[in-house]
Amino acid sequence: MSASPEIGAPPLPRTAQGIACVLSGMVLFVGQDVLMKDMLSHYPVWMLIFVRSIVALITLLPLVLWLGAPHRIFTPLWPWYLARAMLFASGFAMFYSAFPFMGLAEVTTLFFSAPLMTAALAALFLHEKIGLHRAAALLVGFTGVVIAMNPAGDSFGWIAILPLLCALTYAISQTIVRKIGEQDTSLTIGLYTISFSGVLIVPMGYAVSQMIVITPELSHLRMGWPVPQAEGVAMLALLGSIGTVAYTLVSRAYQIANASVIAPFDYSYLPLAAALGYLLWGEVPPYTTFAGMVLIVASGLYTAYRELRVNRTEADNPPIAQTVFTPGAPAVVLEDALDAEAVELDESEEQLN
After folding, report:
1. Is the peptide bond prior to 151 cis by the omega test (within 30 degrees of 0)?
2. Is 267 within 8 Å of 112 (Cβ atoms)?
3. Which of 129, 229, 275, 287 reaches 20 to 30 Å from 51, CA-CA?
């Protein structure tokens, strides 16, 4: 008799899963930002962020309701998600506001101080360990960001501060995800954060439009929202769908793996953005941008190499099990709940016997 086949292949280590999620998310984020840059000539930034949030709500809410536990609608962690939504809405409004004035590669290069900030915040506030090799790799990546941003260049003005501020808000929001861990699933986190950001972006946009004079070059900051035609509706729906999937993947990556390990792989966005900027709009970044990209990508690859060589134990990472609990009650790890259920079944069988 032949041996029975294995029921299933063993799951990937959490670090590998996190890296795969963040790389997939970055590819989708590049596509989203290309659409954003193109659509800003027709629609204000507030409208685009709002529509993206509505699409996320329409997509994620039915999915969470259909899947049920461990995904949940009512969660005591909503204040954390409200804080993340405030960071996301304000940060990415600043990020996209710089698009009409700078090339895609230049804006995103300035933003990519975020992974270094994330690793630093995780070490300071979450007490995650950053060894000598990983610290050196992050330092190389930061050096690449500085070289690529070219602070002495003509494009480094007040506009360049906007993506840097977005980088800070992004790093703080990812640190919040890491602190929350897996008390909620990625779908729940995405549902709350993106939906809240859509609500908050409207008063933000109104406040900005009242504080500044909307000149032709600042038309993407106006509050007048045009009614899109059929093609525009399709593009807006595509924009929201891509952003929702990308956001969920990246959030999952930071949930299941060490933030200081995942952070360098955010840099994979950079060469993709530069390539598409050149192909679509003929943007040719300066040589300093390319030199910085080499260092940035090298830092991420070296971090991955170190992870494989060191062969971290499972104890170094947070538990991967999803959690399920009622609002206001302590978290119960799903694996522990299943073990407890098995014990109860065994005890019931003993009583019957």
Report:
1. no
2. yes
3. 275
| Rounded (10°) angle between helices 287-310 and 132-149 | 170
SS3 assignment for 46-59: HHHHHHHHHHHHHH
pTM of the complete model beyond 0.70: yes
The alpha carbon dihedral of 339, 340, 342, 346 has a sign of positive
How far are the Cα atoms of 107, 193, 283 from residue 92, in angstroms, in the given order? 12, 13, 22
pLDDT digits (tens, 9 = 90+) for 257-267: 776 677 778 77
- What 3-state DSSP class applies to 323? strand
> For residue 307, which of 256, 249, 255, 258 has the smallest C-alpha distance?
258
Q: Are 246 and 29 in contact (CB under 8 A)?
A: yes
Beta bridge partners, 323, equal 333
Mean pLDDT score across all residues of the chain: 77
Q: Nearest 10 degrees: CA dihedral of 238, 35, 17, 174?
A: -110
